[in-house]
Design a protein that fits this description.
This protein is of the alpha+beta class. The chain has 4 helices and 9 strands; from the N terminus they run H-H-H-E-E-E-E-E-E-E-E-E-H. It has a domain at about 50-185: Peptide methionine sulfoxide reductase (Metal Binding Protein, Guanine Nucleotide Exchange Factor, Chain A, Beta Complex). Bound molecules: zinc ion. Zinc ion binds near residues 97, 98, 100, 146 and 147.
Length: about 200
């Protein structure tokens, strides 16, 4: 199953360069070495559903651009990640850090910004928010509720039915074409099977 959770960013170059090596074909920032082997075996959450890792551990698990965004709140260049233009493929968008299902492709739209944009998270409690007054702007930051990874921001200029625009760094997401499971659509970050019985 984990093999299916490979981001499209990884798959497309790999297909084009078939035979040259799967993991060496990953797009990297100019001047930066390609990551040796992206860890797509997501870290196991604690009993409360959270994932807590030291930065040094995240650095080992994530590609450089993923680390800068998820753990350093950086923003990728617009139109730099292929995920922004995928609109006709059904699937689920997971946190690239911890694998939590965050967004459904059915609720993705082309905002024209060059970043993947969604009208809402896949389930309540999946995307946390906090005020962000950096860079001279007043914005609302969005974070993965499981690993607290920085995703992007949410704005109130989106289309119906929510009027919201979740503007997300594509490199913070893994596109999973196998779709969402029932647990992926359950509210919160603790899988239903793991919740304590009343
Ligand atoms: Zn996460």
């Amino acid at each position: 199953m984990m093999l299916r959770l490979i981001s499209l960013r990884t798959v497309l170059p790999a297909l084009l360069l078939a035979g040259l090596g799967f993991f060496t074909a990953i797009a990297a920032e100019p001047g930066e070495p390609a990551p040796a082997a992206p860890a797509r075996a997501y870290p196991a959450p604690d009993a409360d559903g959270k994932v807590r890792l030291a930065d040094a551990e995240w650095k080992k698990r994530l590609a450089p651009d993923q680390f800068r965004i998820l753990r350093g709140s950086a923003t990728e260049r617009p139109f730099s990640c292929e995920l922004w233009k995928i609109s006709d493929k059904p699937g689920v968008y997971r946190c690239a850090g911890c694998g939590l299902a965050l967004f459904d492709s059915a609720e993705k739209f082309d905002s024209g910004t060059g970043w993947p944009s969604f009208v809402r998270p896949i389930a309540p409690g999946r995307v946390a928010q906090k005020p962000d007054d950096s860079h001279g702007m007043i914005r609302v930051e969005t974070l993965c509720a499981r690993c607290d990874g920085h995703l992007g921001h949410v704005f109130d200029d989106g289309p119906p039915p929510t009027g919201l625009r979740y503007c997300i760094n594509g490199s913070a997401l893994d596109f999973d074409p196998s779709g969402a499971t029932a647990a992926d659509r359950a509210p919160g970050i603790v899988p239903p099977a793991a919740k304590a019985q009343p």
